Amino acid sequence: MGAAHSASEEVRELVGKTGFSSDQIEQLHRRFKQLSGDQPTIRKENFNNVPDLDLNPIRSKIIRAFFDNRNLRKGPSGVADEINFEDFLTIMSYFRPIDITMDEEQVQLCRKEKLRFLFHMYDSDSDGRITLEEYRNVVEELLSGNPHIEKESARSIADGAMMEAASVCVGQMEPDQVYEGITFDDFLKPQAGDSPAPTRHSGIAGPSLLQTCSLAGN
EF-hand domain location, by residue (predicted)? Predict the structure, then answer.
């Protein structure tokens, strides 16, 4: 009785922290156990058993995102060696669809958190800026599976997106001025439509691209 009460109390706490329903938490717990091999934690190598990831050109970045302390809300930098079930839920909560019962303020906060997760994938050195080299790296990886796009073409796409971002975030730049990179506040500035300028230019639609990885299972 005591154990059952403790378990239900723990589920209620996780519902409050993540926004998942108790049924969703149970489903994700089954998926967590599959990934971990019924162990209490998951390590990066456990993701080798996710077939969808094999086809994803940014596989390494998606896996790293699960262990990024920024996404785990455990610090401004660094990568964890392993994550437990609550950590797993924290990461999966970024992929949770926006609830139609949310008010406008809650919707904006939810979208901001999803974009922050995506920003962290670009900002690989955790310095708070997406540099041209970091952005080139992501675009080149995303387009690596397209035989019709050469590396130089991918670099041109990334360079064009960064020029667009600079024009939106900085405006007219001096000839000798160097654009240091996109901050998170810059990342939130739309030029047109809903997506941040650099993601639109390269065809990166935002956090939804991460949902190609079916980690939630069936």
Answer: 110-145
